[in-house]
Design goal:
alpha+beta, six-stranded mixed β-sheet, eight-stranded mixed β-sheet, 485 residues
Length: 485
């Protein structure tokens, strides 16, 4: 097997490797067969790969240090990993998602931080070198995989799929907002995100993340609306630039998931409805697949799911243009509702509170009844809280999804990778629209101990002061911007 990096770094050995040896001990990490072997013949299996993040190479802390003879522990008081050297009774400390580490009696800073990835803490090799010294030399066999760099800076936003033609404006702004209508039956919302909401939204996501332990994965998925891909260019607003700036303001532990590229790559497919402001289940799949890759999960294959499609759907724009002549355009262009049916054994229990005490009913993930010829087919619509239990998994994995309605089609895909998925609608707590039940994220974490959290939003959520306030309020209190007017 080709050796592509002769020596990655050096660090002192302890325990099973003699520091008094005249020659250096060589450690070989087989990145294909997932083993660590020493030149004395010892070999240890590892369940995590080496990867690179930019120019830095990373190794799994637990497996690598234990293989080298160190003691590895966890200090919950400060979310740190303790590294004990049996040769001289010293204890080092490294911190999760941090550049800081404790080396002997001194706190030091490293240019490359530790990274929590794939349910495993990784350490940069240069930090190993600073902590341990130079008795061991690392060699690597196999390719080093680059950690996915998922951001919007290089998102491929093109005009490839944009429609040309006359656009009329319809609907009552007081109802929900104007609908921009084209003669081919395509409608879209033209949403502009206020400058101040960029910071308000990012701060809300950061606040929620700050309430969770460092080993909880936190992901923000900002979904473009259909206008970003299909609307005539002159109707574009600041959505993409606003999303980029929000991601740049997120704390380092939060992954801002770039779903622009995955959606643009499939712009010739039915990924958004023409007569409705939502995306389709197919569109949500491509975003889910990108999220799964970021979270270290194996995304399910869309082609492995059975269909239960229905023709004749005319979505939310029909209601939003009621009483206006453009309603007839949507009625003349019904479309297909594509549904990929769940194949796992599951249950979905709906609650009206965050303590999972006020049980309401059990629902199915995808409705196929004639009365559900709409986006409400997914999850059965919106409600405060749901616990989706995937009985085909038995690994204890748990995901929290904080969403508005765009999260519904996403959820039916994400449930394939977790034993439990908790679904929270940010509009259904803390006094909004008559929903009086409180929600406190930290309390909910203590109750459920979820592993990952996704905050998924579409442009109107970011642009709307009330909904930004609702998101912020899930931290356990609410500024109630809409009551201060």
């Amino acid at each position: 097997m080709k050796v592509i990096a002769a020596i990655l770094a050096a660090f002192a050995a302890a325990g099973t490797i003699s520091a008094a040896a005249a020659d250096k001990a060589f450690v070989t990490i087989d990145n294909v067969n997932r083993t660590i072997s020493f030149n004395n013949g010892e070999k240890t299996d590892i369940d995590a790969p080496v990867f690179s993040n930019g120019a830095a190479s990373y190794v799994p802390v637990d497996y690598t240090l234990k293989a080298a003879g160190y003691g590895v522990g966890w200090d919950s008081s400060d979310n740190s990993v303790t590294i004990s050297n049996t040769a001289d009774d010293t204890v080092e400390k490294i911190y999760v998602n941090s550049n800081w580490y404790w080396n002997g009696w001194e706190m030091k800073y490293n240019d490359n931080p530790t990274i929590y990835y794939h349910d495993m803490l990784y350490m940069p090799l240069d930090m190993f070198d600073m902590i341990a010294g130079s008795w061991l030399e690392f060699r690597l066999e196999g390719d080093i995989r680059q950690l996915p760099q998922n951001n919007l800076e290089d998102a491929a936003i093109t005009d490839k799929y944009r429609y040309d033609g006359k656009v009329t404006v319809s609907g009552s702004p007081a109802f929900y907002g104007n609908v921009y209508v084209m003669e081919n039956g395509y409608g879209f919302e033209r949403i502009t995100i206020p400058e101040e909401n960029i910071t308000i939204y990012a701060n809300a996501v950061n606040k929620l993340a700050s309430l969770l332990p460092e080993n909880v994965g936190v992901y923000n998925i900002l979904v473009p609306n259909s206008a970003e891909i299909y609307a005539p260019k002159e109707y574009l607003t600041n959505i993409a630039d606003s999303y980029k700036r929000i991601y740049s303001l997120l704390d380092g532990r939060i992954t801002g998931v770039n779903v622009y590229d995955s959606l643009f790559d499939h712009g010739n497919e039915h990924i958004y409805f023409n007569t409705d402001h939502h995306w389709t289940q197919r569109g949500a799949y491509y975003a889910y697949r990108t999220f799964a890759e970021c979270a270290g999960k194996e995304p399910v294959s869309m082609s492995s799911f059975a269909h239960s499609d229905a023709d004749g759907m005319v979505g939310s724009y029909k209601t939003m243009t009621e009483g206006f002549p453009e309603q007839a355009i949507f009625e003349a262009h019904p479309e297909r509702l594509e549904r990929f049916m769940p194949k796992n054994k599951y249950s979905q229990r709906v609650y009206t509170d965050s303590h999972l005490q006020n049980y309401k009913y059990e629902d199915i993930l995808i409705h196929t009844e004639k009365s559900f010829l709409s986006y409400d087919s997914f999850l059965g619509g919106d409600y405060p809280m749901a616990d989706i239990y995937n009985s085909d998994l038995n690994d204890g994995s748990k995901l929290l999804i904080i969403k508005e309605s765009y999260g519904n089609a996403f959820t039916v895909w994400a449930m394939n990778n977790y034993e439990h998925v908790y679904v929270v609608d940010l509009r259904c707590f803390n006094g909004y629209s008559g929903y009086t039940e409180p929600f406190n994220l930290r309390e909910f974490y203590e109750l459920t101990q979820f592993d990952d959290m996704v905050v998924i939003s579409y442009p109107n959520t970011v642009a709307n002061d009330v909904l930004c306030s609702q998101l912020d309020g899930l931290a356990g209190y609410n500024y109630y911007y809409y009551e201060l007017d």
